[in-house]
Each structure stands twice: as structure tokens, then as C-alpha cells.
């Protein structure tokens, strides 16, 4: 097969901070040992198939701008799918990252009927299995595209039409089977159209019940086929729908609790979705980590002036240090990793631009990781947080939280002991300075 990324003649390597080579890592040294583990094994980086190989660079006002020949109305769609997969694996291998992620429709085209669609998927899964064997590239997660086709315009599992639910269930069944077959670490559900455009035609309670039933079926099928990976839900507040049910980590958590599904799913948090929800990425990660539902990350960034999912490559170490401190402080990834759910800008039309985006994003993540571990090792932030709550390990704190106390008993104690809390500084500026000092002293 002909090479596609011909300007990149050698795999991207770590060359250190002083290299002049734009096609090299300056920080990401996969073999560097950090806190007893290789950097590559901490970060578990994945390239996403959709934005990088399945998207032509179109926007709502304009056509595709990218050089992706397999998307140009191919006469033989399966041949085009193979050509796309060849280019994708060439990219993964040259970039040298360990994982990829895909939707069913990214790797295999729709057939004339669903039977043919399934057969297309099977053939492309076989082809992917061969490529993975040859290259050593692994699957971080698989997923099903339940949002592009018009049949899903009113939702997948939350569609008012049960036939749309059935179709979505069929697709997830095959996508989950494919993920297992390819030894995926996990499986993602992003409910792109699980939401509404107007409440005037929407029965929220009914749609919620459908969604819960769908998730139950997925969890049950996972057990049935013996898939040992983890199921993730990817929160997003809106876009394409006006309101999406998986709004943010806390909303997903509440929903899972309500339907007794909290042991089955964790969250895949996307940076740009966090900011669309009006939160920081740090907030979303901290919520998930501290409530035991943290799973994986879709690494990207938004544009502060745009209210949509611009999916840009991460480039701010400052923004990433606090959330990464939270992730690695809690033990890091088990089934998840950093998936580059990132797109090039529409004017980045050179094939090699895809390398530049990933190289910069990966170096940014690597640098933030090294700084996060530096803060963790020195307990710069963890100690302050622990000390701040020390009172809750003392007699008063323990008693208040125990069933032995009551509102009345606490009130009596305030009177009897003359309790009169003294305000203490939250030291926000001190902590911000400590984080900046760690960044500026640059442990890389
Ligand atoms: C869209 C989502 C999507 C999921 C996978 O905003 O980020 O790309 O990650 O379906
Ligand atoms: Ni995503
Ligand atoms: Ni997104």
C-alpha cells in the first residue's frame, strides 16, 4: 500500500527540549520513569479515528478542505474504508502512540440494508485486527455512532419511536462485540442526540426511562459476552441538541444512582464539554474522581469566545496541571487514557498538520503530568487540603457525622461548650503561587 503521510519519513521520537526538529517530542519521552511507571503507561494516549480520518474539514457553512482522498465519493466504499485504515495505522505507527478509538461508522460504511452494514463492520474489524497485530497498536475504546443518520434525529434510545431504540440497540450490540473482539480497554456511550430540541414535544420522564433501560441492556450484554473492559458515559451539555441528558459528571452520576446503574458506568470527561457545561475541566475531573466514577479523558480544548465544541489540540500546561494532579493523585487511569478527540482547524490542510497538532498536544500533556507528579511527590497541595479538613477527624467532627448526634444535640453542645468558630484563610493566592512555582521550576 502506498504511504500517505510521505513528509514524515521516520517515526516521531523524543529529542529533548532543545531540538530544532518540529517533528519530534520535546517532553514526551515514553520510556521516562515517573513515580515508578513509564510515561507512556501513565498517559495511555489514543488517536481518534473520526476527526482525523473521517472528517473532511467541513463546517456548517463550508465544504471539506482536507486532503482525505478516501472521503471523495468513492466508487468502492469498502476499498476506501481500507485505504482510510491504512492511512490511520500509518499515522498511529509514525506518531508512536499506543492506542486508537473509533465509532462503528468511522471504520465501516453503511450497507444497502442493516445486514450488509453488519457484514461491512465485520470485514473492517478483521482488517483492523490484522493491522493491530502487525503494528502493536491497541484499542483504547470503541463506540457506536448513534447521531449522524437521520433515523436518530430525535434521539437514539430516547427517541419517541421504539424502532429507533431498537436500531440503536442493534448498533451498540455489534459495536460492543467488535470492541471485545479487538481487545478494547473500554467502551464509550456518548449520547449526542439523547436530549431534546424543544420541551414542547418532549416527555422527559418517558425518555429518561428509555435511556435507563438502554444502559441496563448494554451493561447486561457486556457481562453476557464477557467483555472485561469498562463502560463509560461521555457527558456533554448540548450540541447537537439544545439540551443533552448527560449534561455533566454530576448529572450523569445522579442518573446512574437513580436507576441503580452506578456500579456499571464511569465517565469519559471531555475538556471542551466541561467548559460548555459552564464548568472548568478541573471541576468535572474533581467531581468524578471524588465520587468514584472517573474513567477516561477526551483531551482537547475549546475556544473561550466560541460556544461550541471546537475540539482544539490541548496547548495550555497551566490549565492542565490542576486536573491532572487530581487524576494522578487518585491513581491515574485503569481502563481509560487520554484520547485525542481533537480536530485540526479547517485551514490546516497539509497532511503533516495532523502530526503537529498531536505532537504539541502530547508534549503539553506530558509537561503537565510531570508538574502534577512533582506537586504530588512534594504533597504541596494534598497536605494543605488534608490539613484543612483535619477537624473532621477530631472528636467533634466525628461525633457530628455519626448517627449519635442530632440537630438538637449539636445545638446544645454549642451552648454548653461555647463553640465559636474562628475564620481561617483559604489561602487561595498562596496555593496558586505554589502551582505556578512548580510550573516555572519545570521538573521536565
Ligand atoms: C462529541 C463527542 C464525540 C464522542 C464520541 O462531541 O466528543 O466525539 O467522543 O462519540
Ligand atoms: Ni468526545
Ligand atoms: Ni466533543
Task: Give a short synopsis of this structure.
Helix content is 45%, strand content 11%. With 444 residues, the protein is α/β, with parallel strands linked by helices.
Structure explained in plain terms:
This protein has 444 residues and is α/β, with parallel strands linked by helices. It has 2 domains: 33-378, Divalent-metal-dependent TIM barrel enzymes (TIM Barrel, Alpha-Beta Barrel); 384-441, no CATH class. The chain is 45% helix and 11% strand. α11 links the parallel β13 and β14. The longest helix is centred in the C-terminal third of the chain and has 25 residues, at 353-377. It is globular and about 85 Å long. It binds D-xylose and nickel (II) ion (NI) (2 copies).
